[in-house]
């Protein structure tokens, strides 16, 4: 647990969140960034670090990771601080109008202004459509294996056909009492090596491998007890199981931000294009996470939004000062 | 112009025409036609919210890339007829196809 005090808390350390530090810094506002990912750069670093981007002004071509590195260099004079690998869970408005944000790791950040630059949102496990699935979450249904020991001598059903389904099936076959892997296809696209091992274990009778099958129902009294699986010919088999682990990859979700009273339109935050403010005073949204008539999800549009946001956020950070606009060419970049 | 049919979430079908010389993909056409899809990632095959089932004409479509197949693989409700609309460029191959909207809405 840590307590941080800053002027602006930026949620999301992708390119737009990073550039917001620069625009805020020119106006002498300090920034702290929070990101659920363990590194800065957002999608650029996480998903396509080596891919080229062609529409950044001044760069005919730039690799995504290089752009992130250059942005980090550009904002260095303003000494931003970071909380990485944590997700902001709650926001509390104080009587003076400022906020205290709390992350899932209980880090507290006190700030005057919140800027949401969350991109696509947080990547959360994709959930299959099974009735009552959510009732059993934490009561037998889990979406990731954090501590394999919890599954020792238990009966486990895994669902999915990707690498993580294969890997955990292999791993848990040595730990659990009984492992069943349910996959809707007949083949696996994951690492051929792992797929081969899974077929081999099934052949040896060490795991149950149900292909062309889907989990269709779950039941239990307070805790998961049975998993019903529809197989070839649509025949239903019901297995006794202590745990169901659906492994269907990650999907971007707005996450806890959806509960902050912000005006949301199709998983994006509605903003006023004058300053990219939301319907909640002192909360701004910039970059891919916002929406307005004519919105384009482009990094360069996010940069523009960051500049206008900073001009407007100034009045909350320095309520007694008048803002006069100055070019960096005239004024330079004054580190602090 | 290429003509194909969209089946919405209520099972209603509508014929759509789209130009094949504007480098459009099916996700963009669905959004422009105000169909109820999220398309969160904007066409990068990252979110799979533009998932469609190809009810007719699946064999004629260009093969899915590894990236698209990897993403489809993660979908609990995908079938052999599943595609990501964002990866399907409007082309002659789509003439007469029927697409059913299947992507998640949350």
UniProtKB/TrEMBL annotation, chain A:
Cofactor list: FAD
Single GO molecular function = ferredoxin-NADP+ reductase activity
Q: Which domain of life is it from?
A: Bacteria
Provide the FAD/NAD(P)-binding domain boundaries. 7-293
The Enzyme Commission number assigned here is 1.18.1.2
Q: How is the cofactor bound?
A: Binds 1 FAD per subunit.
Where FAD is bound, by residue?
A: 35, 43, 48, 88, 123, 288, 329
Q: Which UniProt keywords apply?
A: FAD, Flavoprotein, NADP, Oxidoreductase
How would you summarize the oligomeric state and partners of this protein? Homodimer.
User: Which HAMAP family does the record cross-reference, listed alphabetically?
Assistant: FENR2
Q: What is this protein called?
A: Ferredoxin--NADP reductase
Species name for this entry? Xanthocytophaga flava
UniProtKB/TrEMBL annotation, chain B:
Query: A Pfam family this protein belongs to?
Result: Fer2
Database matches in InterPro entries? 2Fe-2S_ferredoxin-like_sf, 2Fe-2S_ferredoxin-type, Adrenodoxin-like, Beta-grasp_dom_sf
Q: Which GO terms describe its biological process?
A: P450-containing electron transport chain
Q: GO MF terms on file? A: 2 iron, 2 sulfur cluster binding; electron transfer activity; metal ion binding
- Ranges of residues in domain 2Fe-2S ferredoxin-type: 1-105
Cofactor requirement: [2Fe-2S] cluster
Give the keywords, sorted: 2Fe-2S, Iron, Iron-sulfur, Metal-binding
Family that this chain belongs to: Belongs to the adrenodoxin/putidaredoxin family.
The name this protein carries in UniProt is 2Fe-2S iron-sulfur cluster-binding protein
Protein source organism: Xanthocytophaga flava
